Amino acid sequence: MSPGSHAVALPDGGDGPQRPNYFLLGFVGALGVLTAWLLVQALVGARAVLVYILVALFLAVGLNPVIEGLRSRARMPRWGAILTVCLTMVLFLVVFFWTIVPPLTEQVTSFATNLPDTLNDLQNTPFFADLERRYDLLDKFEGLVTAPDFGQQLFGGLVGVGQVVFNSLFATFTVLILTLFFMASLPGILDVSYRLVPRSSRDGVRRIGDEIVRRIGAFIAGQLVVAALGGVVAFLFLWAIGSAYALTLALVVGVTALIPLVGTTIGALVASLAVALGSPLLGLVTLVFFLIYQQIESYVIAPRVMRHAVDVTPTVNITAALVGGALMGLVGALLAIPTAAALTLILKQVVFPRLERR
Q1: Cα separation, 237 vs 231, whole angstroms
Q2: Measured between alpha carbons, how far is 304 from 298 in angstroms, rounded to an integer?
Q3: If 321 and its partner were Cys, which of 42, 87, 260, 351 is the partner (CB 3.0–4.6 Å)?
Q4: Across all residues in the chain, what is the average pLDDT?
Q5: Residues 223, 297: contact at Cβ < 8 Å?
Q6: What pTM did the predictor assign?
Q7: Residue 27 covered by a domain
Q8: Three-class SS of residue 20?
């Protein structure tokens, strides 16, 4: 060692490298894992609320073009346009339930009233007599009804149905209230979101964001056009064949048509089964009619409307709806197509131009 050099002592007093504190590393790692697990559990617990917020925000963004149209054409203030849209939504829900509940109650009451006569008629048929001889259906049914826990099971089933109805009404009311608040504060939400972006990129982000909002609104408008057209066609056909519940079934067909991919099929099956209860032949004719119309809607009407609305190819629409439905169910299927439209817009206006400049 030269006279001018100085030896530096290590913190542990030795000359080798300092050993890491494995206990501290393990403790910090375990704390991070615990924090992540608690965050995941919190998100899972609040999943329903997050879905309500997401659906309400989607509806608010989608209905914003309608509000802006009322402001520009009818010269309404924003609060007046929002109130008009909300009253229209509430009126539609009232009319929908008003047309659904009385026929459903009538059918259930008629079924319960005619059940003894129906069972007596079934007992006199050779087919039912053969089943009774082989499987003792009446004895098994009597044993099920006279079982000690039958009342408890029946009450539990009724409570479960009532809970489902209550949860559905609560979810609908919550989404409507959240949609109202989001529609009222949407310009402020968008402005704050744009201000989070650096000033140099703010104009471009604002342009893309406004286009995404416009496309979501166009998607909802296109979906409503397709659903309304399906409901009108269903009403005209059901009225032509003399169905007593033409308006009710047409509203069911129109509402279910809002569900991507499978909505029209669900509405067609419900309408066909309802018609078949009165006349099996007319029920079969109804099913054939809706199958033909579904092909026209799927390959002619919907692709043109949706391509004009969101500018996304049908292949991407179908793929997005399937993936969204697999991840989040019905809500995911509804949100998947506008999400795909937004991602397509970002790819075309941001990602691809940057790749071309390299």
Answers
A1: 10
A2: 10
A3: 260
A4: 77
A5: no
A6: 0.67
A7: no
A8: coil
